[in-house]
Amino acid sequence: MRGLRKEYGALRVFDCVNLEVAEREIVALVGPSGCGKTTLLRCIDGLIPADGEVSVDGEIVREPRSGIAMVFQHFGLFPWKTVYDNVAYGLRMAGVDRAEIARRVPHFINLVGLSGFEKAYPYQLSGGMQQRCGLARALAVDPRVLLMDEPFAAVDAQTREILQFELLRIWERQPTTMLFVTHSIEEAVLMGDRVVVLKGRPSRIHEEIVVDLPRPRSRATLTLPRFAELRERVWSTLMSEAKKAEFQIGS
Ligand SMILES: Nc1ncnc2c1ncn2[C@@H]1O[C@H](COP(=O)(O)OP(=O)(O)O)[C@@H](O)[C@H]1O
Ligand SMILES: [Mg+2]
């Protein structure tokens, strides 16, 4: 992203966003509600226009293109399609031939732990299983860039924890460039190589925090003193303005 700016009429959502994500890097994007995280992902995906430049592999993004996949907060599955057909959807759209689809779909269903549920419909699945399906669908197209918008926000806390570690395991097997939005500071530090803090009105990248924790990451990562340090660092960056606002109310 170079000098990226987005306006909705008089509302300038973000401005001067410059961010480079390296191949196989995981970048976690955090910021207060309404600061434009979802909007930024949609601009990167080419779903909505913005001023400035987004490029992937040196190619400017002007519309949705192959190679970029999105995982949505509310799963974004087709309720009338089975797990198999939801996962196959992107491949069919991309014109991948039947034999290749029949080879890839079971692989990705297995990768996310949904084997045996190929014929199930989304309403028959728990939230966690639906998001596994959303993840399989995104991974099946073998994306160069995986965008995730609060992918675990709609599942319960235990499921969320399971899915975080599953995603890390999948990434270890198949490292993909990832940019994901989360409102969980712990999740950002656990998963990311870098945490990018977006804030202000219009919002800008306020700080980038390098997460120098070793990989593979696991539950043990959560107990490292360095993990706690980084979490506090992200927290104070994110909260400094919220605190200021709080004190303004009293004066
Ligand atoms: N289609 C739209 N038209 C007008 N304003 C929008 C639209 N989408 C989002 N916004 C506004 O842009 C701002 C950023 O929204 P969003 O990207 O959803 O924030 P976040 O994901 O960080 O919570 C909000 O003020 C929101 O009301
Ligand atoms: Mg959002």
Can you put this structure into words, describing what you see?
By secondary structure, the protein is an alpha/beta fold. It folds into two domains: 172 residues, Rossmann fold (3-Layer(aba) Sandwich); 62 residues, no CATH class. 39% of the residues lie in helices and 21% in strands. The protein has seven helices and eleven strands. Strands 7-8-9-3-10-11 form a six-stranded mixed beta sheet, sandwiched between helices. Strands 2-1-4 form a three-stranded antiparallel beta sheet, with helices on one face. A two-stranded antiparallel sheet has the order 5-6. A hairpin with a 2-residue loop joins strand 1 and strand 2. Helix 2 packs across helix 3. The longest helix is centred in the C-terminal third of the chain and has 26 residues. The radius of gyration is 19 Å and the shape is globular. The termini are far apart. The mean pLDDT is 93. Adenosine-5'-diphosphate (ADP) binds next to strand 2 and helix 1.
Structural class: alpha/beta
Number of helical segments? 7
Overall geometry comes to globular
At the first level of CATH, what is the class of the largest domain? Alpha Beta
Q: Biggest sheet: strands, sense, closure?
A: 6 strands, mixed
Look at the structure and name the CATH superfamily of the largest domain.
P-loop containing nucleotide triphosphate hydrolases
List the bound ligands. Answer: adenosine-5'-diphosphate, magnesium ion
Mean model confidence by pLDDT: 93
User: Which assembly state applies to the chains in this document?
Assistant: single chain
CATH topology of the largest domain: Rossmann fold
N- to C-terminal distance: 39 Å
Number of domains: 2
Q: Helix share of residues?
A: 25-40%
Low-confidence stretches: none
